[in-house]
Amino acid sequence: MKLRIGDKVTFLNEKGGGVVVRLKDKDTAIVEGTDGFEIPYPIRLLVPVHNELVINKDAENLDIEPDKSVEERVYFVVEPDHEMPLLMNELQLYIYNSSSYNMHFTYSIKDGHLFQTLKHGEIGQFQKLAIKKINKRNLKEYALHKIDALFYKNTHYPAQLPTAEIIHITDQLFNKANLIKHYEFKFPILAFPIKENFMSANQIKYHLTEYDMERLKQIKEFNPDKKQSKSAADYIATREKEVDLHIENLLDSHKGMTNAQIIQHQLRYFQRELDDAISNNFYKIIFIHGVGNGRLKQEILGILRNYPELDVHDASFKKYGFGATEVIIQGTTKK
User: Fold this and answer.
1) pLDDT tens-digit map of 176-187
2) 138 and 39 in a common domain
3) b/e map of 92-128 (b: 16 or more CB within 10 Å)?
4) What pTM, to 2 d.p., does this model score?
């Protein structure tokens, strides 16, 4: 299992627990109890209480070998908000790392003929990470999901090949025969294996063959000063931006905030992203504000009236409904 400094833990053979604060030696961790006292405790007798998110990704890690009976895998998980297909509304997407490896990942969706990265980061051992929530009726807009992953440990470990998988999700998959129950999730889920074959180091080629050498000879020296041509579509795609202004995407928690405080925070974030897009010569930026009572949208439009050089209109109804505004930044030419 995975144990991280800062993790909450319980004791395996007795009541109690606390937070791992430091490492005494390779076999012993110092656990701070609820009473503030620090207790040295054998690492093998600590049970991590994992959160969905890695709280401190820079913390020192303590690696523990998994039970030999546990088959190491990584999954892309879709959890509906109801167990009955006809009553499903929202879908929560996760990456579930059921392995003893840490992983760096990128999550992208298919957008036209290109992929757009929506999230990237790190997931610890035996942890799951919520990466996106979508409405089931918009499933066609989010049909193809791409996961790229690299695997490592903080100690000596068998090398692993990186993986890249594209998952196609359709409405037809959401039937009782495909949904499975899992103790980590409230409702039955769809689970797609991203990586199953964790291999030993000697299975990975680590030397160059004669064929590799011949291919290397054909590589021309890269000239960084030589301009690389791009198609107009590729160039524009690198200068477009999508910003989600929903408060749950901007703050870990907005409990206790008034509606006025929430809108002010959203507007400050909107202004910062708009200024950044203009200063960096973006071609287009889309602000996702939702429908709600329309207050946030009206405030945004009021600010945009101060920028007569910008072309402002509703974003694609097919993709966003009435919940987004598209801003074309004049002065950025389509090359």
Assistant:
1) 878 888 878 889
2) no
3) bbbbbbbbbbbbebbbbbbbeeebeebeeebbbbbbb
4) 0.48
